[in-house]
Amino acid sequence: MELTCYLYPGWKPRIRAASSRRGWMDATPEAFAYRCLPLAIANSHGWEILSPCSFEAVWNGGMAPGDVIVRAHPGSLPHERPVGLFGQGVLTFHIAGILRTSPGWNLWVGGPVNSAKDGISPLSGVVETDWSSFTFTMNWRFTRPHHPVRFEENEPFCHVFPVERAAIEMTEPRFASIEDEAGLKEQFESWSRSRDAFHRKMAQEPPAAPADKWQKFYYRGIHADGAAGIADHQTKLRAREFKSESGKSCPMSSRNDGR
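RE: above sequence
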């Protein structure tokens, strides 16, 4: 699958491979939030688009586009600043690039994964990027009026990753008895007993080392009996950086994952 960002003259989007790090996860006791492997994988599942300027925005509660007020850093360029384009308390970022995917693939477009911003919430979309010759916007909707919201320069405002267009409608969801899958009930019950015993032991004999405070079956990709789950289990995900025509990585900001 190919993902290409076509640049019109003067466009300089700041795009980077998404990081697994989050400031709020770093701040949890013993960084225990990273023990949730699905959380960390989701963080790095795609690419982030960064704000080219610092700004503060506030919504006065009205439904007109002008009811969203943006105060950008004095050094920012007009076309880099987000705007109140659609009304309804929506803040709109323009994407300086035409993103194209291989045939049959869309892009999921949303806010930075597992990141929260007080007073505003990202809106998500799915774009048919295998044919579209248009740019698209990233939109955030204020959740309450008269509450200033700030974005820093190089702060992620958008997260994208490819999804196969036919996958959802080709999926056949169903319910089934656990007995229908050979060995699944035994594996589940073995894990459940092991988990209960582990929690009892932790309560009676708290370990000193943080790594000993969790079982890590899923993290290690194994069942409770030690058997491997799958051969290609992932504990890290690293998306590739965008390359220029010369083969070099496109210039991008240094990471700021304190969000």
